[in-house]
């Protein structure tokens, strides 16, 4: 059995790992840590909850201890897409950094920049930041990134989804070219490939249980009318005796509305979304972790960066717009090899989202229709079938009319096959390589 010591980590870090109660290195840690220690650029693709933070943080801390002298400037920069994930990473920086006398600073929105400026004045070794707040400090000349030797992009796919690429480009322009770069992502897409080409030098690709791995989570899909979802959710929680439930919605308004509905039903519940301040988010998360809240209703803001040990169940009240977010949502349960449970409610207009999830999982999950809703969906399907038949009949009649009209039309004269207009149109290659490739 491989141990953290076998991977080349120092005794001080191994002792800290033991105190953290990490029993043995995860698969991504086993492959990434030795490569990072060797100084290689790494692109690691692994599912949420697979131990990616330890995979980049532990070897970076060890390399920092080998640096000669103290530069007085930060040597490592870790970028995260959300405040919650950045905060989680920073907590690990503080915990493991203490064991090797290395310090960190957290730069995120939603908190006073004055306190962050004081943290920067203490000359931290590691910066953990979200892109927007980091750029604010750069513009105000509160810090320099010239000395950065280790750069990490965590949840890089999420950063691209959230439109952070322009900010990332600006940040990279301030960093030294002589650096070791690490890119961690839950998905491997064309955009991630392109990002890696611009960021990494001769990288090692590590792929562990990529984005389709949900084997540790028992997934159940219920077909439920949208108007009945709130009541069905209540009964689902009560009938199954669920005591700690993370519920996902797509929008802030629906999260707030659902939380208010559940509160009227007697649940201890709160909503977590983008309109909450950072202080409110931290308070809500802590209340959920210590079981002061039975139900937490969250948008996809919380689908990454939430670290809740042994979370038993996740419920998708609304299916996500992006099927990849489904993987990240259910990744909050079934972590570290433990079994998890995920329920999803599929409404009348959600079937295409349900199909997209099935395509991503490379199998179509079973869709259960509770007995009391069967008549509703059978009637709905019958109505839709009749509408399709009507549409098909109209389309057929139109095609017949078009063919008759074309047959009666006199032939066109003086048609120039090689006319200048025709040549110009054919020369426009809309699907050319340059068009498809984003300008990185």
Keywords:
45% helix; disordered C terminus; single chain; Rossmann fold; seven-stranded parallel beta sheet; helicase; alpha/beta; 14 strands; globular; 440 residues
* Beginning-to-end CA distance, first to last residue: 42 Å
Q: What is the approximate shape?
A: globular
Percent helix range: 40-55%
Strand content: 5-15%
Instruction: Kindly give the count of domains.
Output: 2
Counted by DSSP, the helix tally is 17
Which sheet architecture does the biggest sheet show?
7 strands, parallel
Keywords: ATP-binding, Helicase, Hydrolase, Nucleotide-binding
Biased composition (Basic residues): 396-410
Biased composition (Basic and acidic residues): 382-395, 411-425
Domain Helicase ATP-binding: 33-206
Task: Give a verbal description of the structure.
Belongs to the DEAD box helicase family. Residues 382-440 are annotated as: Disordered. It comes from Parasutterella secunda. This protein is α/β, with parallel strands linked by helices and 440 residues long. It has two domains: 11-208, Rossmann fold, CATH 3.40.50.300; 217-373, P-loop containing nucleotide triphosphate hydrolases (Rossmann fold, 3-Layer(aba) Sandwich), CATH 3.40.50. Helix content is 45%, strand content 15%. The protein has 17 helices and 14 strands. A seven-stranded parallel β-sheet has the order 3-4-2-5-6-1-7, sandwiched between helices. Helix 2 packs parallel to helix 3, helix 3 (52-65) crosses helix 4 and helix 6 crosses helix 8 (165-174).
């Amino acid at each position: 059995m491989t141990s953290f010591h076998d991977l080349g980590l120092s005794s001080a870090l191994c002792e800290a790992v033991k105190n953290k109660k990490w029993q043995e290195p995860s698969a991504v840690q086993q492959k990434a840590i030795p490569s990072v220690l060797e100084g290689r650029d790494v692109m690691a693709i692994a599912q949420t909850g697979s131990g990616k933070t330890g995979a980049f943080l532990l070897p970076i801390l060890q390399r920092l201890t080998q640096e000669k002298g103290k530069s007085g400037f930060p040597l490592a920069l870790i970028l995260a897409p959300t405040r919650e994930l950045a905060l989680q990473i920073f907590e690990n920086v503080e915990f493991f950094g203490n064991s090797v006398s290395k310090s960190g600073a957290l730069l995120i929105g939603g908190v006073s920049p004055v306190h962050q400026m004081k943290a920067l004045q203490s000359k931290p070794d590691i910066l953990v930041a979200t892109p927007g707040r980091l750029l604010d400090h750069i513009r105000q000349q509160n810090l320099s990134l010239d000395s950065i030797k280790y750069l990490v992009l965590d949840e890089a796919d999420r950063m691209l989804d959230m439109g952070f690429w322009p900010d990332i480009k600006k940040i990279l322009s301030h960093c030294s070219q002589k650096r070791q770069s690490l890119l961690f992502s839950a998905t491997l897409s064309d955009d991630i490939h392109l990002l890696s080409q611009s960021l990494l030098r001769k990288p090692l690709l590590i792929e562990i249980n990529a984005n389709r791995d949900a084997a540790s989570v028992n997934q159940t899909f219920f077909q439920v009318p949208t108007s009945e979802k709130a009541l069905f959710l209540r009964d689902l929680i009560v009938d199954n005796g669920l005591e700690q439930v993370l519920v996902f919605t797509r929008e802030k308004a629906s999260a707030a509305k659902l939380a208010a509905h559940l509160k009227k039903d007697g649940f201890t519940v709160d909503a977590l979304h983008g309109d909450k301040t950072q202080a409110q988010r931290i308070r809500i998360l802590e209340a959920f972790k210590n079981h002061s809240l039975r139900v937490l209703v969250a948008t996809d803001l919380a689908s990454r960066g939430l670290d809740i040990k042994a979370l038993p169940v996740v419920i998708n009240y609304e299916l996500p717009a992006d099927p990849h977010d489904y993987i990240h949502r259910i990744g909050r349960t079934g972590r570290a090899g433990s079994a998890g449970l995920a329920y999803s409610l599929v409404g009348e207009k959600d079937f295409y989202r349900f199909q997209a999830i099935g395509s991503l999982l490379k199998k179509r999950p079973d869709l259960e229709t509770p007995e009391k809703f069967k008549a509703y969906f059978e009637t709905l399907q019958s109505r839709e079938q009749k509408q399709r038949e009507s549409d098909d009949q109209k389309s057929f009649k139109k095609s017949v009319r078009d063919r008759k009209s074309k047959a009666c039309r006199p032939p066109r004269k003086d048609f120039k096959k090689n006319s200048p207009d025709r040549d110009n149109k054919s020369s426009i290659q809309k699907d050319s390589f340059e068009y498809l490739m984003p300008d990185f």
